[in-house]
Amino acid sequence: MKILLTGAKGQVGQEVLALASAGTFEVYPYSKAELDITQEAQIENAIQACRPSVLINAAAYTAVDKAEQEIEKAYAINRDGVGHLARACKRHNLPIIHLSTDYVFNGSKTTAYREEDVPVPQNVYGASKAAGELLLQKEWEKHLIFRTSWVFGLQGPNFVKTILRLALKQTELRVVSDQKGCPTAAADLASALVQVAAMLHQGKTPWGLFHYCGDQETTWFEFAKCIVHYGKACFPLKLEKLHAITTAEYPTPAKRPQNSVLNTEKIQQTYGLKPPSWEQALVRMIQGLEQTGELREHFST
Questions:
Q1: Can you tell me the distance from the alpha carbon of 66 to that of 60, in angstroms, rounded to the nearest whole number?
Q2: CB 210 within 8 A of CB 145
Q3: Beta carbons within 10 angstroms of residue 30's beta carbon
Q4: Annotated catalytic residue within 75, 103, 125, 271
Q5: How many domains does the chain have?
């Protein structure tokens, strides 16, 4: 099986590459510098060059707050770029697996969001991702859309690293406690993508939209508490107190959904992918950060 991977230097992309090192499949990785999905010719050239079995699109504009000012750029990548990929895949009869987000919802629902719930995004990032989903669904039937949430991992910036860096320097932190979602380990998401890609390669083709995220819902505040709890075993954290605050007390340019919990029953029933424990993945990530020494420069002297 050959996978053409866009967004290869992102959190998920790098984890897909790590899995490929086992040698059970081939990955042709393209970073943004190597393949700009807003340029149709570059997509066509990449497909022609590697002749993949499946395309995994992990490329995206993900700067949620910055997107409020860079509207055209967000839509160029998250909507138009996805359209270019869809049309190229259709020309080559190539299945595509595309990553999307929980931020397509506004958070007003009191229970977990299902795939049939209508997206009502409340920020530019979410709106651009929702537009990309619609365009892919319109342009090419052989697609799988994976909506996910709160991604963290060893590669790239994320909430876990931010909390640990701050906890190494500060004695108190304020964290929003009225937004809930499901943390998702980038390594677990990458594994799910590769497993499904293999199933597609073998002929299993229930196309469509699926939710995939960690196993339990939590809030940013409770997530931060968990990060600090496990972080203390590996790092000399200075943090003494976490303060729970409301969204109103921490205004951001982009509005966030208060509830972005995703229901994952459909992907469990269709592809047999049971959401793994994000807490166990968090422990592994923190231990990995200790081994790499990535946070050492933030240690207090």
A1: 13
A2: yes
A3: 24
A4: 125
A5: 1
Residue 42: Cβ-neighbour burial (10 angstroms; 0-12, 13-18, 19+) = middle
Q: Which amino acid is at 297?
A: E
Domain hosting 152: range is: 2-157+182-216+261-277
Residue with tokens 């869809």: 86
Q: Which value, in Å, is the radius of gyration of the alpha carbons in the chain? A: 19
Tell me the residue type at 63: A
User: Is 48 within the bounds of a domain?
Assistant: yes
Question: Which residues share a beta bridge with 158?
Answer: none
Burial 77-110 (b: 16+ CB within 10 A, else e): bbbbbbbbbbbbbeeeebbbbbbbbbbbbbbebe
Catalytic (active site) residue 230: no
CB-based contact 16:3 (threshold 8 Å): yes
We report the CATH number of the domain holding residue 58 as 3.40.50.720
> pLDDT (tens digit, 0 to 9) for every residue of the chain, 301 residues total?
999 999 999 999 999 999 987 777 899 999 999 999 999 999 999 999 999 999 999 999 999 999 999 999 999 999 999 999 999 999 999 999 999 999 999 999 999 999 999 999 999 999 999 999 999 999 999 999 999 999 999 998 999 999 999 999 999 999 999 999 999 999 999 999 999 999 998 888 899 999 999 999 999 999 999 999 999 999 999 999 999 999 999 999 999 999 999 999 999 999 999 989 999 999 999 999 999 888 887 775 4
